[in-house]
Amino acid sequence: MEKDSRFDDEDRAFTDDEMYAYDYMDVAVRANLEEVLCDCYTALGWDVVERQSMGRKSAMTHFSMMRAHDIPERDRRQFLQVQVETRANKAARIRRRAHKRSLALAVTMGIITVALIVLGALAVAYSEGAADYALGGVSLFAALVLVGVSVFFYVRMFRSESLRARRELLSCVRDIRGVYSAIKDTFSEG
User: Fold this and answer.
1) Biggest alpha carbon distance in the chain?
2) Gyration radius (Cα) of the chain, Å
3) Is it the case that residue 1 has pLDDT exceeding 50?
4) pLDDT tens, 141-174?
5) Sign (positive/negative) of CA torsion 182, 184, 189, 190?
6) Which of 163, 48, 32, 25 is nearest to 88 (CA)?
7) Tell me: the pLDDT tens digits for 129-145?
8) How far apart are CA 135 and CA 141, in angstroms?
9) How many alpha carbons fall within 13 Å on the CB side of residue 76?
10) CB neighbour class for 170 (10 Å; exposed up to 12, middle 13-18, buried from 19)
11) Under 8 Å between Cβ of 126 and 132
């Protein structure tokens, strides 16, 4: 955990002038976007007051930040910050929905397979003739074929979704870096 030395005296009360002279913001970001977003916020004039991982195995980092309220070109900075945050949120949505279609396929095929197995087992258990045995055998065979086909399509769809999600995430990160370049060009100190 890193802390800004200006805030060492935690018991000190802020005056109204000090409190309203700054804007404050807390942000939780994914660890894979942590560095680029921290650079973006810093380039937009935010000072990172505290940076802390949200648990040992967490993929999230929490930032507490502040910046002067009367910062030059405040509206332009806010516009660029919204662009960065929109792209970061899109990256988070991509990660969440990456495998929903393939999971839905797997669950549906699993339910159908279980139904075919139950039908086959019941047909064999309560059979009174060759036709019942045949129905049970066909149901069990169909269940096995369905398992094989389901696994094949699940793996293909999972890989396809993984590649598409990876491409979209890379595009989001490229977009964030593009906005970061615009921020640096616009607000460079030197």
Assistant:
1) 92
2) 28
3) no
4) 888 888 888 888 888 888 888 888 888 878 878 8
5) negative
6) 32
7) 888 778 888 888 888 88
8) 10
9) 12
10) exposed
11) yes
Using alpha carbons, list the distances in angstroms from residue 152 to 98, 110, 158, 165: 18, 13, 10, 20
Cα dihedral 82, 87, 90, 91 in deg (nearest 10): -140
The three-class DSSP label of residue 132 is: helix
Q: Which of 140, 138, 134 is nearest to 118 (CA)?
A: 140
Are 165 and 94 contacting, i.e. CB atoms less than 8 angstroms apart?
A: yes
CA atoms within 13 A on the CB side of 92: 14
- Per DSSP bridges, beta strands 2-3 and 47-53 are antiparallel
pTM of the model: 0.60
3-class SS shares of the chain: helix, strand, coil, % to 5:
70, 15, 20
Query: How many residues belong to the chain?
Result: 190
Question: Rounded to an integer, what distance in angstroms lies between the CA atom of residue 159 and that of residue 99?
Answer: 9
Angle of CA points 93, 37, 25, to nearest 5°: 95
pLDDT in tens, 44-78: 888 888 888 877 666 788 888 988 888 888 888 88
| Measured CA distances, 155 to 45, 61, 138, 187 (Å) | 46, 32, 26, 47
